[in-house]
Every structure is written in C-alpha cells, then in structure tokens.
Amino acid sequence: MWVKLRVLAGCGNNSSKNEGKSEGTTENQNADNEADEAADDAEEGTEEVKGSDEGSGDITGTVDIFQYKVEINDALKAATEKYMELNPGVTINLETVGGGDDYGAALRTRMQASDQPEIFNIGGPQDVIDWEANLADLSAEGWVGNTVEGLLDDVTKDGKVYGMPLAIEGYGFVYNKEIFEAAGIDVAALKTYEDIDKAFGDLKAKIDNGDLKEQFPALEAVIEYPAKEKWVLGMHTGNIALGQEFANCTEAFNAKEVEFKYAAELKDLIDLQIKYTVNADNPAALNAVDYSMQAGGGLAIERVAAIQQGNWVYPIIAEVDSAVAEKLGIIPMPLKGVSEGNTPVGVPMYWAVNSQSDEKDQAAARDFLNWLYQSEEGMQIVVNDFGFIPPLTNFGDAKPSDPLGQAISEAANAGTIAPWVFNGCPTSWAENVLGAEIQSYIGGDKTWEEAVESAKQSWKESR
Fold first, then answer.
1. Do 185 and 58 fall within a single domain?
2. Distance CA 228, CA 221 (A)
3. Which domain holds residue 207?
4. pLDDT tens digit string along 100-133?
5. What is this structure's pTM?
C-alpha cells in the first residue's frame, strides 16, 4: 500500500520558517527517533475514522486559523466554508502569512493580542517549549493512532501530543524534465556532486550557445537561487549539512554546540547553485532574488531549468502554467562525498490548538481538524486540493497525483532519504542566524569561515 513509508522522524520546520510561500500576506475572513518502519501496512494499527462528512450539527464556536502555507490558502478557505455548511453553528476565519514575512515573528505578535488564534502552526521540540502555555493536549484525538510512526516524536512532551502533522514533504532541485531531456542529460544518472556539476555545466553551455533557444525562448540560466529568502538558505540548504552532523531533531535540540563538520561541503553546495545562476558574476545580486522570482517568475515560465525547492511548489507552478508543472521532477541535493542521492523528507509544520481559547472554540477547532484529516471528504481535500502527502496511515490508496508529490513518495518508499533537523536548532537560528550569515557570504560581506564561526558562536550562546 502506498502509505508504507520509511521516513526519518525528525523535524519539520521552526515556527519562523516560511517554507513554501509566495510573496505577500493574505488574509481571508468568513521530521528525535528514526522511524524504522514508518507505517507497516496501513491496515495494521489503524483506528476507526472519527470524522463525519455530514457534520455534527450541534457544534458551536468561533475558530480563527493563523497559518503559514500560502499554497493551500484558497483550498483551505474552501474547506472551511464546506465545514461551516455542515456545521452552521461554527464560524471559521482564516489568516495566512507567507512571502518574505517571518511566520514565527508574526505568530508572536498575534499571540500578544486579545484575539489569539484557535489553530496555529508549530515546528519541533523548541516550539513545544516556546509555546507550551498555549498548546492544548491532543493525545486523545482519534487521528493520533493513525499517524505515521515517528511523526509525533517532535511534538510530544511528557507523554502528551501537542501537534498534528500537516503533511509529509521533501525537497531538492526541482527541475524541468523537458529542458534536461532536450539537452541530452540523463537525470536518472545524477547522484553525486560531480555528476550534477557536470550536468549543470553541460546545460549551461547549451543555454549560452543558444542551442535551446528555439524550444525554450525564455531560458537564460540553469538555476535560480533566492538568497533573499533566509529560510531557503539557512533551513533547507543548511539542513543538507546539519542533517549529516545530527541524526535527528532531538540530537540537534540537545546539542550545546554545532561543530559544522561539513561546512566545506555546504559551501560547495552553495557555490554550485551560485555559479549556475544568471548572477554568477555578481553573487550579491542574488540577495534580492525572492521566492516569487524563483518559482513563479523563474521555473514556471521556463526562465530557468531548476530551483531548490520541494513538492510544495507544485501549486504555484501550476497556477502560472499547468503544462510546465506536469514536466517537473526532483534531483537529490548532494553533500559532496558525504550524502549523495538522498532527498530530505519530513513534516513541514504541525497544527496546534490554543489551550487559552474558550472551551467551545477549542472543541470546534479540534472537530474541524478531525473532519479535515479523518472524514472521507476531508481526506480528499487534503490529498487532491492541498496536494499533500498524507501523514496518516488510514488514507487508503489516496496519494498525490502531481509529479513532485509522487517523486517524494517514491524516495520515501525507497528509503533514499535524509532527515530534517533544523527544528532542533535554537529558536530562529536556522533562518535568522545561519540564513543571514549565508547571505553575508553571498553578498561578499564576510568570508565563509567568518560566517560559519559567527553562526557557531550564536548557537552556543543560545544554548
């Protein structure tokens, strides 16, 4: 069965993470332990579905949702409207914060207001500590017993579960299959750093020579690297190295210092991306390139052939050009000579329910999440409308239909994966410290050695 996954239990992302975002803020009112066998047969240990397509009808309350994932904003809004049709006594308001905004900072501001959200997003163990006073115990919810093994480890404290996983996601070099094929590149053979470097070099030569101009008139570079987005740099690029230094989130969380054992290899990976952008001769210009320019204004219009992103980017590409979206695949990002051919896979964020909210509003929030992830209608929304890889084992044969979701599923099933550990970093460190230090290196303000030492010192001071 499709959900027989092998995933590394290890963090999704810190609450300051802005992974998978498009530009701007939208408001709408109305991956500790490795999972040896993440879900050995969905039939085993699966509890009865608790949600109902008909709705309970007698539930009342107001639920404010404050979430970070802009790709699902419209679909989530539609889901809330459907739930309110089934439950007319409930009012749900949705606010989505994305783009260049810091979700963690926005959440802290929102939590200082009198109208705190009933549902919000948290990352791993550090967020559980930071937000413990606002986290309702979800241990008794029906979906807990259906969660893929290991995915609740990072939001479990003293035996209590404080978060519901949004999805299983993965990332790498998202690439346009048609462009690589036109250049005569066999992507299936790209495993090592040297393989990818040579392939990118061959593609660059064909772009520069105009060999692909007739078929892809907008194509100007192999890759786009959005260095303006610190979450891309510090969380995702940085995780390629940190995920080999620490076995999982818990190990990173407990570490008093970060050694940066693979700092040289991380530099190689960053330099690899820089040299195949249109700004290779002026890297500082990359610090002005954002997610929107990289995805919708880059890969989606075939201005570039690849970007460092994950399966969450599919809806953004499809919104611009559905035909291009269907051509996409994922090349694993290499840590030279250390981990090659592996795709980081984990939980991006968790849904949390605010324990400080009114009891009836908390009950409505719980019921909405149960309906969304455990009713037949809700599960179809999660898979088909959100495009999520389900984090629960009782979704049956439901699986993502998009090529990126399929690629991550295949990697998870094959076991060719690496952990997400950046949720084990000190609060905001991965994005706002390591990400900023990488920006300084790219911009020429610091040497690589200076950037690394500064990041190491900040980690130590934070612990």
1. no
2. 18
3. 171-342+424-462
4. 678 988 999 999 999 999 999 999 899 999 999 9
5. 0.86
